[in-house]
Each structure stands twice: as C-alpha cells, then as structure tokens.
Write a structure and sequence with these properties.
Elements: H1 6-27, H2 35-43, E1 49-54, E2 59-63, E3 68-73, E4 82-84, E5 91-96, E6 102-115, E7 118-131, E8 134-148, E9 154-158, E10 167-168, E11 183-184, H3 189-192, H4 203-209, H5 214-223, H6 227-232, H7 236-245, H8 260-264, H9 269-278, H10 282-293, H11 300-310, H12 316-326, H13 328-337, H14 345-360, H15 368-371, H16 376-410, E12 412-413, E13 417-420, H17 425-435, E14 452-458, E15 467-472, E16 478-483, H18 493-518
Parallel strand pairs: 1-5, 6-11
Antiparallel strand pairs: 1-2, 2-3, 4-5, 6-7, 7-8, 8-9, 9-10, 12-13, 13-14, 14-15, 15-16
C-alpha cells in the first residue's frame, strides 16, 4: 500500500507553486503604448466629461475629449446631461465643477497575450480619475485566464485586493464578481493569431463586434467552426447567445450544417438576407423560422410580434390554432389596430378565451364580424360573460332538479330548530352572501353527488339565515361542517349539534334507507 508522506506532498505543492509563479512572470509585461489611447477612443467613447462652471453671464467649460478650455457654452447646461462639445463636436456629458472637482468612473477591460504554449487573458478594473479638469487611468489587474493549446484546458487565477501573489480560481468579493462581458483590446490580435490553429477564427472581427471573452469564443469556435461565418456576416447577437447559452442553441440551429442556409434553418434567400441585415438574436431567429413556415413576408414588426405574442405562449398549440384561423399577418394587423400588438402573450390568451366562447355560443367564426370585432375588449367581455351565464344556467337547472328530490328526504320542522332544503342554486349563493362564508362556491359540487347543502333555521323565524349544514353522502351522510356568520359557531351551537344528530338518526337516515330499498 502506497502512502504519501508529508514531505512528498509538500514537494508537489512547491512544484505547482513555482510553475504558477513562472507562468505569471511570463505574463507580467507592460501594456501597449497605445492602450490609453484605445481606452479614450472606444471604451470611454461618448462618455467624456465637459466640466463647466457658471460665470456671471454664461457657462464656461473644459472638454476632456479635445482637451480644450475656456469654452463658452450656449443654452441651458445641466449637470449629468448629455450634449456635444462646441469645439470638437463629439458627444460628452456635462459635469458641474462646483458640485465635485474630483470623481472617478470604473470599467472592466481585457488584454489577450501569447505566453508559453498558450494564451493569457488579463482582466483589469480601470478607473478614469478626474482631478482639476485633468484625468488619468488607474489599473487594477483582477484576474488572469491561461488557455493551453497543447492540452486544451483553461486555468484561472485571481489577485484579491490586499493579498500577495496569484491564487487559483476566479476573482470575487462579498458583493460582486467580474462581468461576463468586457471590452477587449483588439490591436494585437492579428499578430497573436498568426498560427495555423486559429488562422480562420475571425477573432478580431468578433472582438470588435461584441464584448464577450475571446477565450470563450476560441473554445466554442473549435467545436463550432460556423462561428466564423456568423462573425463575418456580423450576426453578433447570435454569437453572444451561443456563447452564453452553450447547449441551449442546439434546438434552433442545425450544427451539422456548414452553410449559412442550413445552419440557420432558413430556406429562402429573402429570409437569409433579412437575418443578415437585421442581426437577430436566438429568439428572433426562432421567430423568423416560424414566419417562414407561415409563408409571410419578413418585417421587423412582425418578427417582434411573433417573438412576444406567439412563441412566448406556454401552450404553442393554442397560438397555432389562432394563427391557423386568422393568418399570421392578418392577426398582427388586427392586434396592431386594437393596440394590442405589444401586449405579449396576454393578447393570445384573451383571444383564445374569446374564440372558445364564440364556439360555445355557436357563432359563425367565418364571419368577419365575429372573427375581427371592431372593439375586441368589449366583444371579449360580452362573449365570455354570456358563456358564463349559459353555463351557469345549465348548472343551476341541474342543481334545481337534484334539490327538488331532496325536499322530501331532508325537510323537517322541530320545536326550536328546523331543517330546510334550498329550492334553487341561487338560494345557496344568497345564504353564503348573507352569512359571509363560501357556501356559494359549493354549488358546482352538488351535481357530482359529493355534498348535500342544507339550511338550519330557527322555527320561529324560518326566513332568516342562521346556520349552514354540509353532509357527506359518500360517508353515510355524516356532518362535514355546520357554520354560522363568518364561519363562526352560533351561541346555541351545542343545542344545534344535538338537534342535528337526533334528526339524522331518527328521521333523515331512515327515509334515505327506505327510498333506497324501494328503488
């Protein structure tokens, strides 16, 4: 049996530590000379500040973008509002010098570099610190990702604030982790990727289009070379969804196909041109695929309608039913006229309720008056209310027939209390409203024979609600509950319970047994 001694374990740990320190030392290179220039031009583009102060008659400012001072600003200038520099004409954000002369902004950027047998992605937190109208960049390197080309594996290291050296794992603190999407310095990528393995990866174009990790892109590109086509066609939203969802894209894309037509599952040239022009996301591509099956002309409004109203529906068969009855374009135009094209799946739900109500009411749905009512909301409410009334009418008729047979079995008048059988369903609903409990909801249970609802009244006031009694016919008519006002027991609850037991044993159950024997 082989045992690892503490000395051997310590030696292995030291070897790994030395290898990590050697690897980190290889990456300890200065950043390119034009790195700050790239930050100015791309990362902080349109976010430079124009620091102003109010003079006696006008506003005077200093633009960080063109580094020009004593600019006279016309019009009303508000702190924090966007605008344009009167000198260079570029977009800026106004900042009042009086409120704060020193302030900073944070952003995360990444720098990809070649090291021994692989790549090292260095992620920095960059703070643009402004003091006395001048600004400088402060760099804090948070994380490094080493990707080996030989064993195709990824190692991650982090540098926690206040600690010494690099540790294994990802950077995080109590409040945050590093963002998934950061700006990536692109000007050295052509030189870095001048190797056969990544010659056709189109990584530089990808970095210029999105803020996703270049290592994540290269890893996915090795498994999915079609990413090169998507990158060159500038379908950046699809690439971001693929990199973020990993396996989730396999239902929408055909990864076995290497042409853009087969990969996107789009057959016509019109739809392919539309997709390339409008850069759809994965969910929007699903909408385009659905639209192509309906043989309609692709438009941005229709694509968004399908995405929000049709494909988001939990039951896609329900949405398909409405589309087959209406036609996709006709459904979109109708929803737009009604102002419901941005209502999401609620429009599909409401229209399906209306459609079912119309079928129940035996309306002719080939008639435009019913298929496309001028005021959909009013027509929906009217049809659903009428359906409910007719369904309740059928239910109430059935309940009334059952209650009429129960009168001879359960009606009884005692010296102090009486048992009264309700004559119709509305009597039960009225009893619930009067006593403030939920017996009105029990009307639906009566036709199934699962419950018997009776009224307990005082003999001297039979028309005044007092107690509501429920019996279970499945268990020899045992008492389920006997409730008074607000589901509370009545003051005479003991006498009522004694009365019910006597009535059941000596009167009701013998009548039921005799009727059963005769039948």
């Amino acid at each position: 049996m082989c045992m690892h001694t503490p000395q051997k374990t310590r030696n292995k740990y030291l070897i790994k530590k030395q290898e990590k320190e050697r690897l980190m030392s290889l990456a300890d290179r200065p950043l390119p000379k034009d790195f700050n220039q790239w930050l100015d031009k791309y990362v902080w583009k349109n976010r430079h500040k124009l620091i102003f102060r109010k003079d006696s008659k006008s506003y005077i400012g200093h633009c960080q973008c063109c580094n020009t001072g004593n600019l006279i600003l016309t019009g009303k200038v508000l702190n924090g509002k966007p605008g344009r520099c009167p000198n260079c004409g570029k977009k800026i954000i106004f900042r009042n010098e009086k409120l704060s002369s020193e302030f900073g902004e944070k952003e995360y950027v990444s720098y990809l570099d070649r090291v021994e047998n692989g790549f090292m992605l260095r992620t920095f937190q960059v703070e643009k610190w402004t003091s006395n109208k001048k600004y400088s960049y402060l760099f804090d390197e948070r994380q490094r990702e080493y990707w080996t080309l030989t064993r195709i594996e990824l190692s991650q290291f982090y540098n926690q604030m206040g600690s010494f050296g690099w540790r294994n794992g990802i950077w995080q603190n109590m409040y945050q982790t590093l963002p998934d999407m950061t700006y990536v310095y692109p000007r050295n990528l052509t030189r870095l990727l001048n190797i056969p393995a990544f010659k056709y990866s189109a990584l530089k174009q990808h970095v210029l289009q999105t803020k996703t990790s270049p290592i994540a892109y290269m890893q996915e590109w090795q498994r999915l070379p079609q990413l090169e086509i998507l990158t060159k066609l500038k379908l950046s939203k699809l690439i971001v969804d693929i990199l973020c969802r990993r396996e989730g894209y396999r239902n929408t894309l055909d990864i076995t196909q290497h042409t853009i037509k087969g990969f996107l599952k789009l057959q016509s040239k019109e739809y392919i041109r539309f997709a390339v022009k409008n850069n759809p996301s994965l969910s929007e591509l699903e909408s385009l695929q659905y639209m192509e099956t309906q043989r309609v002309r692709p438009t941005i409004q229709l694509m968004r309608f399908v995405k929000e109203c049709v494909l988001r529906h939990v039951n896609l068969e329900t949405a398909d039913t409405i589309v087959s009855v209406f036609g996709l374009e006709s459904l979109h135009h109708y929803a737009k006229r009604q102002g419901l094209d941005k209502a999401g799946l609620y429009f599909i739900n409401d229209y399906m309720d209306y459609y079912r109500a119309c079928i129940f009411l035996k309306y002719n749905m080939s008639d435009t008056m019913f298929l496309k009512p001028k005021n959909f909301k009013a027509a929906h409410d009217r049809a659903c209310d009428l359906q409910t009334q007719m369904q309740n009418k059928a239910l109430y008729s059935k309940v009334e027939g059952i209650l009429s047979k129960q009168i001879s079995l359960f009606d009884y008048q005692g010296s102090q209390f009486s048992i009264i059988t309700p004559r119709q369903a509305l009597d039960i609903i009225h009893e619930g409203k009067t006593l403030g409990h939920c017996v009105g909801n029990y009307v639906n249970r009566i036709p199934s024979g699962n419950t018997v609802i009776l009224f307990v009244r005082k003999t001297d006031s039979p028309d005044q609600s007092f107690c509501t009694l429920e019996l279970n016919p499945r268990r020899n008519y045992e008492v389920v509950q006997c409730r008074g006002f607000k589901n509370n027991p009545v003051p005479e609850q003991k006498e009522v319970n004694k009365f019910i037991d006597t009535w059941l044993t000596k009167i009701a159950l013998p009548k039921i047994a005799a009727q059963t024997k005769v039948s």
